[in-house]
Amino acid sequence: MTTPILSARDVRKSYGRGANKFDALKGVSLDIREGESIAIIGKSGSGKSTLMHVLALLDQPTSGTVELAGHDTRSLTGTALNRTRNKTFGFVFQQFFLTANASVLENVMLPLKIAGVGRSERKRRALAALEQLELADKAKNKAVNLSGGQKQRSVIARALVNTPRVIFADEPTGNLDTATGAVVEDILFDLNREHGITLIIVTHDEELAARCDRRVHIRDGLIVDVVEAATATPATATAEERAA
Ligand SMILES: Nc1ncnc2c1ncn2[C@@H]1O[C@H](COP(=O)(O)OP(=O)(O)O)[C@@H](O)[C@H]1O
Ligand SMILES: [Mg+2]
């Protein structure tokens, strides 16, 4: 089997300490195949966002490991960690995280700036990403003046401008009306299918989850079920997943 793009091994995450200690993840193991789409689903407070943050190297587990393409990420710190995250991952969050008073173009160029790409190349690539999302005409608009769907498409443009291997989406359609949400979903699945970008989606939405190759159900900080879509490639669940 090819090396998973991401691999969580017995990941535990606790918040607080002493009497206030809360175990948000209680031993999660999961292999994510490069190019797959995977939904992480579960009730509010079950640990979905915590798992996503740990997988995305935005937060460290209290114990356990996360491997990126077979490499233990514990040795990644500081600049190297930021660079790896910026180069490998794109983020699409419900709370758009656009800089409101900056232009759409500037928002989309940001990951390239962090990556040290020169100004004219930044602009060229950001405009190409905006073009892809049919937002080129909004490049000079301030982010604050966009509609919800346009904001989310800008976020996707920003997520893909660095040609990431993985896109993390936390409730990507949560703030959008049904029609706009469907457009955003289609864009994400197109990126997955046409560019082989691994898609990791946290969602409450069963229909969105059903479009993914695999659905990982999480409850009280544990994976309780992994469901493979009928059309997906054969299951390669880990022993822990099968036992769960
Ligand atoms: N920074 C934090 N400090 C303390 N508790 C937290 C923190 N972040 C999350 N939690 C708790 O951990 C649990 C899981 O949170 P989260 O991963 O955000 O759940 P979900 O995304 O499934 O709604 C929740 O009970 C939440 O209150
Ligand atoms: Mg959450």
UniProtKB/TrEMBL annotation:
Its domain of life?
A: Bacteria
* ATP-binding recorded as keyword: yes
What is this protein's name? Answer: ABC transporter ATP-binding protein
User: Listed GO cellular component terms?
Assistant: membrane protein complex; plasma membrane
UniProt xrefs under InterPro entries: AAA+_ATPase, ABC_transporter-like_ATP-bd, ABC_transpr_LolD-like, MacB-like_ATP-bd, P-loop_NTPase
Q: Which SMART domains match?
A: AAA (SM00382)
Q: Alphabetically list the UniProt keywords.
A: ATP-binding, Nucleotide-binding, Transport
What terms describe the molecular function in GO for this protein? Answer: ATP binding; ATP hydrolysis activity; transmembrane transporter activity
Q: Could you tell me which residue ranges the ABC transporter domain spans?
A: 6-239
The UniProt entry, under Gene3D superfamilies, shows: P-loop containing nucleotide triphosphate hydrolases
Q: Does the keyword Transport apply?
A: yes
